[in-house]
Design brief:
The chain is an alpha/beta fold. 52% of the residues lie in helices and 12% in strands. It folds into two domains: 11-152, Up-down Bundle (Four Helix Bundle (Hemerythrin (Met), subunit A)), CATH 1.20.120.1190; 162-317, 3-Layer(aba) Sandwich (Rossmann fold), CATH 3.40.50.
Length: 318
């Protein structure tokens, strides 16, 4: 979705590319005067057109922030200064319009003149003015370049039934995703291994119909107010808020995750309060080590105990 965004050149890179294309321009004409004149005009046209069309592609191909899915709007706001991005897009568009104005008002004089020295001087003047304009948006182009890197790092979210896995760090969310889908997330015994959203898929088969279900592993959440959550945690909150048809909330009753069971319960109550309209499936992981007397689904991502029960529960709710 966002991976088709064009590569963003910084100001000097754009200027160098424009001059490189200009160097390749060569006009053939038997008349020496017209050969020189046409070459000057063609080189000037090539330089300005490269600058103008490149800047235009940056502005037109960047996603409309206000029209993006709410999840991507929130994700962008978590990772980037949206106001700065909007200002930078405006600045780059100003550079495009101003360069176009310089080119269109000056090219007429080139076409009318019969003086080669005047043509060379005018060409130099146009190069200088357009180059100066591009350098004035050096900061804005760098902002677009950085924003593009953020955009292309976004996960490929599909508009299909979606399950979001949530819970404290190190309770087994990534391990569960690996059990439920073909995704191969990084698994490690330390908090916040998952720093971004990880996407997997499973399928619901009914006779000849197959329904694709999206499963999202989120960064771990801690039991604290939203205002105190870091950028990694806020991605998880945004996924639950904007994407989840079902939330699979994982508990670790063994507390080997490093967090008390009571704290995990408090976080779950907090999420239920925040997302009252969401459908929750409660799962207790590490059932091969400890099982409580609750009616929650008991699973073990190591032995695969209870995984089929969880899959059936997800499919029935989807």
């Amino acid at each position: 979705m966002f991976r088709e965004l064009p590569e963003i050149l910084e100001s000097q890179e754009l200027i160098d590319r424009a001059f490189k294309k200009t160097d390749k321009v060569n006009i053939v004409d038997r008349d020496a005067f017209y050969r020189k004149k046409k070459t000057i005009i063609a080189k000037t046209d090539s330089f300005c057109t490269t600058i103008i069309t490149t800047l235009e592609s940056y502005v037109k191909k960047f996603p409309s922030i206000n029209n993006m899915h709410p999840f991507f709007q929130e994700l962008l706001a978590i990772k980037f200064d949206v106001d700065e991005l909007k200002k930078s897009l405006g600045g780059v568009d100003w550079a495009r319009k101003t360069s176009y104005m310089v080119f269109t008002t000056q090219i007429t004089q080139l076409k009318r003149s019969q003086n080669i020295e005047f043509l060379k001087q005018k060409q130099k003047e146009i190069y200088g003015r357009v180059t100066s304009i591009v350098k004035q948006v050096k900061k804005e182009l760098k902002t677009l370049k950085d924003a593009r890197d953020v955009f292309i790092s976004f996960p490929d979210i599909e508009d299909i039934p979606t399950v979001v896995i949530a819970g404290f760090p190190n309770v087994g969310k990534s391990s569960l995703l690996r059990c439920l889908s073909s995704a191969k997330p990084e698994i490690a015994q330390y908090p916040f291994t998952t720093k971004e959203l990880v996407i997997g898929h499973m399928f619901k088969q009914e006779k000849y119909d197959k329904t694709k279900i999206q499963i999202i592993d989120t960064p771990g959440l801690l039991d604290r107010p939203l205002s105190e959550r870091n950028k990694i945690e806020r991605q998880a909150i945004s996924a639950v808020k904007n994407l989840a048809d079902i939330v699979v909330f994982i508990f670790d009753p063994t507390e080997t995750c490093g967090y008390r069971f009571d704290d995990q319960k408090h976080l779950f109550s907090q999420m239920q309060e925040m997302f009252k309209d969401s459908e929750f499936i409660i799962v207790e992981n590490k059932a091969d080590f400890k099982k409580t007397s609750s009616k929650n689904i008991k699973v073990s991502c190591e032995s695969k105990e209870g995984i089929d029960v969880l899959i059936n529960e997800i499919i029935s709710k989807i």
